[in-house]
Amino acid sequence: MTEPMTDEPFRTIIEPFRIHSVEPMRLTSRAERAAALAAAGYNLFELPAQDVLIDLLTDSGTGAMSAEQWAAVQRGNEAYAGSPSFQRFRTAVTDLFPFRHILPTHQGRAAEKILFTVTGGAGRVIPNNTHFDTTRANIEFTGAQAVDLPVPEGLQPSLRHPFKGNMDVAALHGLLAERADVVPLVMLTVTNNSGGGQPVSMANIRAVREVCDRYGKPLFLDACRFAENAWFIKTGEPGYGDVPVADIVREMAALADGMTMSAKKDPLANIGGWLAVNDDRLAEQCRSLEILTEGFPTYGGLAGRDLEAIAQGLSECTDDDYLRYRVRSIAYLGEALESSRVPVVVPFGGHAVFIDARALLAHLDPLRYPGQVLACALYEQGGVRACEIGTVMFGLRPDGTEAPAAMDLVRLAVPRRTYTQSHIDYVIEVVTRVAGRAAQLPGLRIVYQPRQLRHFTARFEPLR
Ligand code: F0G
Fold it and tell me: How far is CA 420 from CA 36, 65, 97, 185, 197, in A?
């Protein structure tokens, strides 16, 4: 008897693209990798990328552009002022984020630098669900204080909750009730990268907006991963199942007064970003600074061709097939590690799987940097480069003292449209093997560090 035809979906994840051009990668031996690691001072940012097999250091700027994006690059117009590429960029941005003023920047941190130079300063306090490292550093650089207000669920790696990126609204209320005069604006990072790539619900954005309204404070989105966040709202928040992703994004934007953005994440570009604001006076101040550091406001540190690539990428990243594949492929990695009993942050975020290194390397004190130790071991064992998000990244305070971060995580960030399922299967094998030997891994000590953003350039030595 023949089975009737069915519309039931298949289990295999289909990458919704075929490969258009390829970049060879180089296999190395474990001895070669051990030597490269020692030469890099056990800092994975110091490795030559050609010595890395699968690069999960970041999803930022590392994605593959589409044929249409490369075609758009050819249409780039390089006029200093008034380029049609800027018009296309602005139209694509405002279609999703209808803010009054759009200031292109060379990447997200440039938008942060401009925004906080104008709004920060000594004595000011800027809350966020969790500040990303460059956001925090840009705020602290002005003398202001960066405050993280995640919901308590967000700090428990093994606790399942659909929107662990949410802000603790009561804590925000408490902060504003006491010190509203020193808070120039409130930020929300979607998805919450440092907190595990976890999404923020529309209900939470709305609740934060209400508190902001009560105290007359503008709300800014750090919207790098807005499309992945919108997909989680569509698939996880009641009432949004039938709402198109682009409409969800517009609803998020309508609750905010402005945004900082890195086009190197969801917009599928290799470089770029923007600052958007509604307030005319703030826009004028920001634009003056933009001209000083980025360039004329119709290119802002980018080539016209970059603006074109971003404009095209914005239409691709809100596509249902793409987002389904994207979020499903991250969960595939996470589920495999979870079933091998590797402690991972659950549920899985939109761009990365985070390993709880403090739990896996429980024999190490946080000040022996379990996340850095694990990331180094993944590289030495299998040529997989990951990123510590823990005490190395956040443990050094502005006054020079050191304290354990809230969590010691290792992030496996997956570049967009770049690796196939077999690459991910290989990563699963490497992580599982390292996890089986984690209890034998020695700690690290820092032998050099700068005062700020130490994770990029610090050098380490294994403790034997
Ligand atoms: N905000 C968030 C939430 C980020 O994740 C990043 C960058 C930025 C701002 C800054 O943007 O790199 O264009 O200047 N995150 C990258 C990462 C670097 O690896 O997560 P940028």
Answer: 26, 15, 31, 41, 21
SS (H, E, C) 113-180: HHHHHHHCCCCCEEEECCCCHHHHHHHHHCCCEEEECECHHHHCCCCCCCCCCCECHHHHHHHHHHHH
From the CB of 135, is ligand 1 less than 6 Å away? yes
pLDDT value of position 287: 97
Tell me what the pLDDT averaged over the chain comes to: 96
Residue 130 CB less than 6 A away from ligand 1? no
**Residue 191 Cβ contacting ligand 1 at under 6 Å:** no
Atom of ligand 1 nearest to the CA of 192: 3
Q: Among 112, 128, 193, name the best residue to mutate to test ligand 1's pocket (greatest count of ligand atoms within 8 A of Cβ).
A: 193
Q: Is the pLDDT of residue 68 over 70?
A: yes
pTM confidence score: 0.95
Q: Is the pLDDT of residue 304 over 70?
A: yes
